[in-house]
Design a protein that fits this description.
Protein name: Glutamyl-tRNA amidotransferase
Organism: Candidatus Yanofskybacteria bacterium RIFCSPLOWO2_02_FULL_47_9b
GO molecular function, one term: carbon-nitrogen ligase activity, with glutamine as amido-N-donor
InterPro entries: Asn/Gln_tRNA_amidoTrase-B-like, GatB_Yqey_C_2, YqeY/Aim41, YqeY/Aim41_N
Distance between the termini: 46 Å
Mean pLDDT: 93
CATH class of the largest domain: Mainly Alpha
Helix content: over 70%
CATH architecture of the largest domain: Orthogonal Bundle
Pfam families: YqeY (PF09424)
Number of helices: 7
């Protein structure tokens, strides 16, 4: 069963169970997947669906920050519940230590020495850990390592 099929199946289950929140979330994710397929003009594979889900998680994290700044903690909590529900479909996330080691290896492989080389290092790391760590975390670690 592909990841897209799993999302559709979970949406059906939520619909039958009367779980409006989950049904709505699955609908939004499937809509984002469909939009990406239209943009790409072909079906997405599981890896690409994971990228779409990661994008949806990132949007919700950004929303949480804004809601917390505005004192809307109940809305931030709702967004966090959605993130928790979406993380089920994501590959297991790597620990900070593992990500930092991947960054160090990529710096050695690319020969990066300054912050100007960040792009090369980040793209190298992200290609290896696909979906297993947030880009912002990788970027932060690359910046820290290159500053040393």
């Amino acid at each position: 069963m592909t990841l897209k099929e799993k999302l559709k199946e979970d949406m059906k289950i939520a619909l039958k169970a009367g779980d409006a929140a989950t049904r709505s979330l699955m609908g939004m994710v499937l809509s984002a997947v469909k939009n990406k397929e239209i943009e790409k003009k072909s079906e997405l594979n599981d890896e690409e669906v994971v990228a779409v889900i990661a994008s949806e998680v990132k949007k919700r994290k950004d929303s949480i920050i804004q809601f917390e700044k505005g004192g809307r903690l109940e809305l931030a909590a709702d967004e966090q519940k959605e993130i928790d529900a979406l993380m089920i479909y994501m590959p297991a996330q790597l620990s900070d230590d593992v990500v930092r080691e991947a960054v160090k290896k990529a710096i050695a492989e690319t020969g990066a020495t300054t912050v100007k080389d960040m792009g090369k290092v980040i793209s190298s790391v992200m290609a290896k850990i696909k979906g297993q760590a947030e880009g912002s975390k990788v970027s932060q670690f690359v910046k820290e390592e290159l500053a040393r």
